[in-house]
């Protein structure tokens, strides 16, 4: 495969949906920049992509560290080519195959009644501040090219209040609010903004929750650019 001139940066990449999004765009000719805190988690994903002939590199960064995240995105653009697509979905993930509800507290979630300023702030840093930092890093080049796409993936609580995800809902709803508000202005600059909210477990082969199906839906939305928001499973 010829090395692509456009890059997709997958922020919050993991072995499930992040890897599927990277694979879908990579097979369409994009170079792939994988970003999350752990290079140990990212390296096997990058290796699997390369086996398919996809140009992929790893850029470890914590989304709550503005400097590190910006530096990772700048390095990705310098090494792989202009970031034409930003996929942002650094939400905590878990193994759904057991069919058991995960330990939400261990993942940093608090119920609505137990949500404090501190717990809400922690989710805001991941779900909103990180997204704004990433967007700020890639938007100048997108505007200059009059072409780009910001893809934000959230959970159901971005739209439907859920008592068990009190602090996460605040953050995800805030990200959705900003994306909704900014999309018209960015659209004038040739930048598409999209939001997909997922209300089902992300499990390979599990109908609407299959990560490859979700990734393909994202790819088609990024190409057609005719729909801002899509919900899955609710």
Automatic annotation (TrEMBL):
Pfam families assigned: adh_short
Gene3D superfamilies in UniProt: NAD(P)-binding Rossmann-like Domain
Domain of life: Bacteria
Protein name as catalogued: Short subunit dehydrogenase
Taxonomic source organism: Nocardia alba
């Amino acid at each position: 495969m010829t090395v692509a001139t456009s890059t997709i940066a997958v922020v919050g990449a993991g072995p499930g949906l992040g890897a599927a999004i990277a694979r879908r765009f990579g097979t369409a000719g994009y170079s792939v920049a994988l970003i999350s805190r752990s290079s140990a988690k990212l390296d096997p994903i990058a290796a699997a992509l390369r086996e398919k002939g996809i140009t992929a590199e790893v850029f470890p960064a914590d989304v709550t560290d503005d400097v590190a995240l910006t530096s990772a995105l700048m390095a990705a653009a310098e090494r792989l080519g202009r970031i034409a697509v930003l996929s942002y979905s650094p939400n905590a993930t878990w193994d759904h195959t057991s069919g058991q509800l995960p330990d939400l507290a261990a993942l940093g979630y608090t119920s609505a009644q137990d949500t404090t300023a501190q717990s809400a702030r922690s989710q805001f840093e991941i779900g909103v501040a990180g997204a704004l930092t990433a967007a700020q890093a890639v938007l100048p080049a997108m505007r200059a090219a009059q072409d780009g796409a910001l893809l934000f993936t959230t959970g159901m609580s971005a739209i439907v209040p859920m008592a068990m995800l009190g602090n996460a809902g605040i953050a995800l709803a805030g990200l959705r609010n900003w994306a909704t508000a900014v999309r018209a202005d960015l659209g004038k600059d040739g930048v598409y903004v999209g939001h997909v909210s997922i209300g089902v477990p992300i499990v390979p082969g599990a109908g609407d929750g299959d990560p490859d199906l979700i990734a393909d839906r994202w790819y088609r939305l990024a190409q057609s650019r005719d729909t801002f928001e899509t919900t899955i499973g609710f």
